[in-house]
Every structure is written in structure tokens, then in C-alpha cells.
Amino acid sequence: MNTFTWFFLALLVLTTALRVWLASRQIRHVWRYRDEVPSAFVGQISIAQHRLAANYTLAKTRLSLVQIALEVLVLLAFTVGGGVAWLAQYWAAHAASAIAANVWTMASVIVLGGLLELPLDMYRKFRLEQRFGFNTQSLRQFFADLLMQGALGLILGLPLLFAVFWIVQRAGEYWWMYAWLVWMGFNLLILAIYPNFIAPLFNRFEPLPEGELKQQISQLLQKCGFAVQGLFVMDGSRRSRHGNAYFTGIGKSKRIVLFDTLIKHLQTSEIEAVLAHELGHFHHRHVMKRMVWVFGMSLASLWFIAVLVQSAWFFAAFGVAPMSAGAGFALFFLIMPVLVLPLQWLSGMYSRKHEFEADQYAAQYAKPEYLVSALTKLYRDNASTLTPDSLYSMFYDSHPNAQQRVARLLASGHN
């Protein structure tokens, strides 16, 4: 083992210890306040509902400890255990070309990684979610979704991999720039076709029927100067009782989607407030800023890969010989989460800032108390804990915790 091998293993130990420590803090903190509803929610969330949310959070966090252990074992098997090295050698001997060998090496790592995590995913869906009354998906539908996702991976993912590795082999020193342009184009294409061609493969989307809700949403969109292709209701209850709403698409394919579970549990004024929050993301160009961030990170990643695939020490660290682009890509994407984990809190902080900005925008176009009421119902119905550990939340959560959001919204309503 060379110096980088020891560096990687040391960083893996440190990041794993950090993840376990944060999960342990979350478990202790949620348990400590399990019998005490925060004052801002007294009278709106009962002690029984608060305990249910605590128990659900504890169960998910304990399962995350099992997931951490599984991820570490899989990562070690692929890296220092020689998994990627073996796959690269196998496909180098059996694939029709060097490009195909690179593609099948990368694809094999993706497929095998997914299969190894499948039992835990099934446990999460059919035991944990089922126990707390959220899962409505049948085993047959679960596997039908899995097959559909696999088919989409073949139809969309394989051509992308072939294109990228063709560029790696043929485009010269600056292949990473051309590969990045292809990657950007692919992502923009997916954003454009997702609402009309991909999402309907998994769910049914029906136009929001005429009535008070559609009228109020249309008026809100006019006030905000926002144009969409349509307002749709999605049968989210086919798979889960969790409620949600989202915007999707770019350009002329933009649409608003409401889960049927959301419509069932929220009043019209509350749904309007939730959508005003989502419109706040568009007003502040959060979607565009995140896309720029993702594209910037992907450019930096491809440049870094270009350096690594020319570095004998990188392949030697994981026993890969001869050097190949497919093995280099696979190893990079396997170890990248370990390398960037210590900086994960920065991404969460940036996301929470956007959520506060969207809340403030919503308070201008809908009454803050309606958004507070909607959020409270969503916390209750989704069994979201009201008392997360502060460090755990800072490190992992993309949204501010419930007490912070409600306090700011109520303060804006008094201004």
C-alpha cells in the first residue's frame, strides 16, 4: 500500500467516526425531548404525535448506522479490497474494445453497488416505513419501479457513458472540457423531458380540476408573474402517505405538481402558501444558482479525474493494473463522498439560506400564519421531528429546523 492508500483509509476512519458520532448525538437529543412538545407547537401537535415523530426519527437514525457500516464495507471491497481492479481486468479481457471495457467497468460498479444496497432499501420501505404507516407501495410495484429505473439507465445512461469514454480516448489533453459539455447537455435534456416523458412512467398526473384551489393558485401565479405549462395532481399516495409539492421542468416544460396527499390534508390557503414558498425559489433564482453550482463542481471533478487517470500512484493505491479510464472514473466516484464529507455542512448551510429566503418571499404573497399552519401539518403528517440535534441538523439538513422556520415566519408577520 502506498501513501495515498493510508491517507484514504485514515480519512475513511475519521469520516465514519464523524458520521457515527453525529447520529449518536441525534439519537440522544431526540430521545431526551421525546416527551416535551416545543412551546411554538403546543395545541397544534399532540404529545402522542410528537412521540411518534421522535420514534420515527430514532428508527431512521438507527438504520442509518447500519447503512454507514454497509457503505464502508462496500467501499472497502471495491477499493483496497480489489473489486474495481478485478472488474477492470475482467472487462479488459472480455470487452470488444477499450471504450466498451471502460463503460462496462463503470456500469458494473454502479449495478453491483445498487444490488448490495437493495436489501437495506427494502427493509427501509417494507419494514420501517410500513411500521409507521407511511408505505403504501406493494412489493410488486417496488420491483416494477426497479426494472423501469434499470431500463432508463440502459436507454439514457449507457449512451452517455459511451460518449464520455469515447471523448476520453479521442479528444486529447482537454477531453475533460468536452466531456463536461456533453454532461451539461445531458442534464439539461433530462430536465426538459422529465415532466412529459419520464415522470409519467412512474406516476399518474392529472390536471388540477377547476375550483377554488385552481383559481387561487392561478391568481398567485399572476401576482408573482410566473408562467407554467400546467397545474397537475400526482398520485403520490400509490407509494407513500408523505405529502409534497414541487416545480419541475425548464423553459416551456415548467409545471407545478401537487401530491394528492398534500391536497387531502391542507386547506386551500395553506396550499397557496406552500406554493408561494416554492415560487420564492424561482424568484431568487435558487434553481439556477444550484445548477451553476452543480455544473461547476462537475467541471472541477472531471478536471481532477483527468489528473488522476494519468497518475500511476492513484491506481497503485488500489491495486489497479494496467491503468484504465473506466477504473479511474469508478474509483473517483467511490472515494469522492469520503473526500468531500467534511465540507458537507457548507452545502447544507447554503441550502438553508435559500429556504429562509423562500419563506420570506412567501410571507409577501401569502399570510405567514398560513405557511406556519401548512408547515406544522406537514411536520405532523410526515412525522418530522421538531427537536433535532443542532449539530446533526447543521451537518445534514437541507432545510432549517421547524422551530427556526416558524419563529422567523411569525416575526415577519409582526413587522
Explain how this protein is built:
- This protein is 72% helix and 4% strand.
- The chain has 415 residues and is mainly alpha-helical.
- A hairpin with a 6-residue loop joins strand 3 and strand 4.
- The longest helix is centred in the first third of the chain and has 34 residues.
- The N and C termini lie far apart (62 Å).
- The model has no long low-confidence stretch (mean pLDDT 92).
Provide keyphrases for this structure.
mainly alpha; 415 residues; 72% helix
Distance between the termini: 62 Å
Helix content: over 70%
Structural class: mainly alpha
The DSSP helix count reads 16
Strand-residue proportion: under 5%
What's the topology here?
Blueprint: H1 3-32, H2 47-78, H3 83-94, H4 98-131, H5 139-170, H6 175-198, E1 205-207, H7 212-224, E2 231-234, E3 245-248, E4 255-259, H8 260-265, H9 268-283, H10 286-308, H11 312-317, H12 325-340, H13 344-365, H14 368-381, H15 390-396, H16 402-414
Parallel strand pairs: 2-4
Antiparallel strand pairs: 1-2, 3-4
Short account of what is shown:
This protein is mainly alpha-helical and 415 residues long.
